[in-house]
């Protein structure tokens, strides 16, 4: 990868957008900024670049998403599945067609949003269900490892619980803090960053404080209903991005 002004600016913008989303919604929407990175580098290089940056973003986000914003009962159910899913995702990354995973995840996510729209865009509060939480954790672990897209499975479990916007964002943030720490080493082993990537990584660290803070400011301005509507809208964007990644690979 050639390190020039275009690469630096585009990558910095992509990382800043990811930081902004983490500050606003706690995590899970990293894929929103990845299209920018794909303009200047291949997906594996982008994964290696982002893996340590995700950890930096998460640790800085703890300044805003403190333990008081975590739903501990949900994390207890979700995190063990996340650990298993990341392990499974690491092996699937090496042997399975990533495009197929992207397409399946896109279809499931769009179906979930479709059901929400059929209910008139309201959150029908549902009780916690352990098997569903474990499945969400495992699926999120697999997709975050394979495609940095662990948000949809987690959102499909958390959104119907009707958590407050702060608890939703805080729980999501803590969930992905654990996940990003766990997947950092496997991603670095898969991508094997070279000198230019490490330099770019250091430059992009400067985007973390401002990006997370601005996102957190947006979160403070959104009311409960707006927060949930934006999350569902982001799920649609994420699903369409996954669908594009999967189908364009087959068409190409």
UniProtKB/TrEMBL annotation:
Family of the protein in this entry: Belongs to the 4-toluene sulfonate uptake permease (TSUP) (TC 2.A.102) family.
One Pfam family this sequence matches: TauE
Entry annotated with the keyword Ubl conjugation: no
Alphabetical list of InterPro entries matching this protein: TM_pro_TauE-like, TSUP
Cross-referenced PANTHER family: MEMBRANE TRANSPORTER PROTEIN (PTHR30269:SF37), TRANSMEMBRANE PROTEIN YFCA (PTHR30269)
Keyword Magnesium: no
Name of the protein this chain belongs to: Probable membrane transporter protein
Superkingdom to which the source organism belongs: Bacteria
Gene Ontology CC, one term: plasma membrane
Source species: Cupriavidus pauculus
Subcellular localization(s) per the UniProt record: Cell membrane
Main location: membrane
Segments crossing the lipid bilayer: 7-32, 44-63, 75-93, 99-118, 167-189, 195-215, 227-244
Keywords annotated in UniProt: Cell membrane, Membrane, Transmembrane, Transmembrane helix, Transport
Membrane disposition: Multi-pass membrane protein
């Amino acid at each position: 990868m050639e390190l020039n002004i275009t690469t630096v600016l585009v990558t910095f913008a992509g990382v800043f957008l990811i930081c902004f989303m983490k500050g606003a919604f706690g995590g899970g929407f990293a894929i929103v900024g990845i299209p920018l990175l794909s303009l200047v580098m291949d997906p594996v290089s982008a994964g290696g670049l982002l893996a340590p940056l995700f950890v930096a973003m998460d640790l800085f986000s703890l300044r805003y998403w403190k333990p008081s914003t975590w739903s501990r009962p949900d994390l207890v159910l979700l995190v063990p599945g996340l650990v298993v899913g990341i392990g499974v995702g690491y092996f699937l990354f090496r042997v399975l067609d990533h495009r197929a995973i992207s397409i399946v995840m896109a279809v499931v996510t769009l179906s979930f949003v479709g059901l929400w729209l059929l209910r008139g865009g309201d959150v029908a509060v549902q009780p916690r269900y352990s098997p569903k939480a474990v499945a969400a954790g495992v699926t999120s672990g697999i997709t975050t490892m394979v495609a940095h897209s662990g948000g949809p499975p987690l959102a499909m479990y958390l959104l119907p619980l009707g958590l407050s916007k702060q608890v939703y964002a805080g729980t999501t943030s803590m969930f992905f803090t654990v996940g990003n720490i766990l997947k950092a080493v496997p991603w670095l082993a898969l991508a094997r960053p070279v000198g230019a990537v490490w330099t770019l990584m250091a430059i992009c660290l400067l985007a973390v404080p401002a990006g997370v803070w601005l996102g957190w400011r947006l979160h403070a301005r959104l009311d409960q209903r707006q927060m949930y509507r934006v999350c569902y809208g982001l799920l649609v964007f994420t699903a369409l991005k996954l669908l594009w990644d999967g189908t364009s690979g087959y068409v190409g």
